[in-house]
Amino acid sequence: MLWIITKYLITSAIVVAVSELAKRSDRLGALLASLPLVTLLALTWLYVEKQPASKITNHAWYTFWYVVPTLPMFLLFPRLFTRFGFWPALA
Fold first, then answer.
1. What CA dihedral angle connects 66, 67, 69 and 74, to 10 degrees?
2. What would the mean pLDDT of 40-54 be, rounded to a whole number?
3. pLDDT digits (tens, 9 = 90+) for 4-35
4. What is the residue extent of each domain of the chain?
């Protein structure tokens, strides 16, 4: 149980750090957010928890293929946000 709490604390601290940094600097917040921190954390947690190599490599492989279709969202979001507002743009 302590391990799960530790994972939650570290992972959530990174998300909070990104949002706090973004409040102070758009560019630095975006830079930190663009790093594959969640993926690196997930890969690390899988490795530390002694998951098979196939599970870890499959996670990296599928992550790549799921990221590619989401990239246009980052180009469209600023335009949609200014035109329709936050929630419609996010949807």
1. 150
2. 93
3. 899 889 888 988 988 898 899 988 888 887 77
4. 1-35, 36-91
Rounded-to-integer distance, Cα 58 and Cα 86, Å: 34
Give the separation between CA 80 and CA 59, rounded to whole angstroms: 31
The Cβ of residue 30 has, within 10 Å, a number of other Cβ atoms equal to: 13
Q: How far apart are CA 86 and CA 41, in angstroms?
A: 28
Q: Which two tokens stand for residue 61?
A: 């492989």
Which structure tokens are listed for 4?
């799960």
φ, ψ at 33 (rounded to 5°): -65, -30
